[in-house]
From TrEMBL:
This is Uracil permease. Its main location: membrane. Belongs to the nucleobase:cation symporter-2 (NCS2) (TC 2.A.40) family. InterPro entries: NCS2, Xan_ur_permease. It is found in: Membrane. One of its GO terms (cellular component) is plasma membrane. The chain crosses the membrane at residues 27-48, 105-123, 130-152, 164-184, 191-217, 237-263, 317-340, 346-368, 380-396, 402-420. It comes from Liquorilactobacillus satsumensis DSM 16230 = JCM 12392. GO terms for molecular function: xanthine transmembrane transporter activity. It comes from the Bacteria. It is a multi-pass membrane protein. Keywords: Membrane, Transmembrane, Transmembrane helix, Transport.
Length: 428
């Protein structure tokens, strides 16, 4: 491997650290692996809302590059379409069309930007106080396990009457990926997810669950139908969009910080301090603002890609940047975009069983590595509440504003950590 500029600190456990640049051929394959991993979720959101998937692919690639730039290329993360805004976006699309959704996406991004500026001015020392290991570990576990239902639905191809052949493809994909991850050596050991998806796709073809009609009908070059703010339509204020989507930004911020915690653990760094939480939030927010201007949904960091980082130990930001460039390129190549969209859900579900589990396992590692004492009642209480609220799917809905289970679990964990004494009266 050729390396880029070395950093003062390195994670010796990583095959490729954050600043390392792979050889060109390896770089392409590693980046495509991340592209395949995020593709399903990134295009699913616009399909559910009624937005052109190519625009979402384009905005996710541009947003990721902007994020890398804003964080001084110090954080290996990929930004894709956010699921947190789906319900509100669907309502806005029915009422006012995309102009309202775009304005809402911009307003949500601006909330991130404003918060980042405040943190940049007043500091982020509070993060260590409100998010100690006993809170962080369970939250990361929740982030991974809360996606378990999504993985299971994909594996069984929800609404298919749970045909065994779909589950068979998912399990085959899972097992072959585990085998690749455990026994391959050299460069091939860094792309078990990509190899697993390819083998799973071939199995899906053999079982007849792949629809290639869209691939055959797709054009080689297809310009995404951008909905550019101020150009494609006259500007108009949509207060309902701003009121409905801006507050959700505070919810996705908790998920954003959760992902940063996972990355801190994986890379053995503290991104809250360097490059700083203000930079990570600013990059995430600016990405959503750009997405809103070109016609895409708001973006957020992706747990799927973090799972790939955990599995492969390839943490190079060059690889994530390459994935972003491929996303932009493929948004203009109709055949390639259609081919990737043709990957059936059971293949993605089989991969997700492993990737989402990897995220949850890193939460367990935080608890173990920090020697969290569960003989203390406060630690048991905090962990128990976070896990049940988060994994149980509890949510709070007030009008068009919805507080997700992860956000609620985080909120309860933070409050309990701040108010509960170190020891209960019976432990003193």
């Amino acid at each position: 491997m050729n390396s880029g500029k070395k950093e003062k600190f390195r994670n010796d456990e990583a095959i490729l650290d954050i600043g390392d640049r792979p050889q060109f051929g390896h770089w392409l394959v590693l980046s495509i692996q991340h592209l395949f991993t995020m593709f399903g979720a990134t295009v699913l959101v616009p399909l559910l809302v009624g937005i052109n998937p190519s625009i979402a692919l384009f905005s996710s690639g541009v947003g990721t590059l902007v994020y890398i730039l804003c964080t001084n290329a110090k954080i290996p993360a990929y930004l894709g379409s956010s699921f947190a805004f789906i319900v509100t976006m669907q309502a806005l699309m029915k009422a006012d069309g995309y102009p309202a959704v775009g304005q809402g996406a911009i307003s949500a991004g601006l909330v991130y930007v404003i918060v980042s500026l405040l943190i940049g001015r007043f500091g982020s020392a509070w993060v260590d106080r409100i998010l100690p290991p006993v809170v962080v570990g369970p939250i990361i576990i929740v982030i991974g396990l809360s996606l378990a239902t999504t993985a299971a639905n994909d594996a069984m191809l929800k609404n298919s009457n749970y045909d065994l052949k779909y589950f068979g493809v998912a399990i085959f994909t899972l097992l072959i990926t585990i085998i690749f991850n455990m026994f391959l050596r050299g460069f091939s050991s860094m792309i078990p997810v990509l190899l697993g998806i390819i083998c799973g796709y071939l199995m899906a073809l053999a079982t007849g669950i792949v629809n290639l009609q869209a691939v055959a009908a797709a054009k080689w070059f297809s310009l995404p139908a951008f909905n550019v703010m101020f150009i494609n339509y006259h500007f108009k204020w949509y207060p309902a969009a701003i009121i409905g989507m801006a507050p959700i930004a505070f919810v996705t911020m908790t998920e954003h910080m959760g992902h940063i915690m996972v990355l801190n653990k994986l890379t053995k760094r503290n991104f809250f301090k360097d490059p700083g939480l203000h930079r990570t939030l600013f990059g995430d927010g600016l990405s959503s603002v750009i997405a809103g201007f070109v016609g895409g949904p708001p973006t957020t960091s992706y747990g799927e890609n973090i799972g790939v980082l955990a599995m492969t130990k390839v943490h190079s930001v060059w690889v994530l940047g390459g994935a972003a460039l491929f996303a932009i390129l493929f948004s203009f190549v109709g055949k390639v975009s259609a081919l990737i969209q043709s990957i059936p859900s059971p293949v993605i579900g089989g991969i997700s069983f492993l990737l989402f589990g990897m995220i949850a396992s890193n939460g367990l590692r935080i608890l173990v590595d920090n020697h969290v004492n569960y003989e203390l009642k406060r630690n048991l209480i905090i962990t128990s509440v976070i896990l049940v609220i988060g994994i149980g799917g509890t949510y709070l809905k007030l009008g068009s504003f919805q507080l997700t289970s992860i956000a609620l679990a985080t909120l309860f964990g933070i409050v309990l950590n701040l108010v509960l004494p170190v020891k209960a009266s019976s432990e003193k």
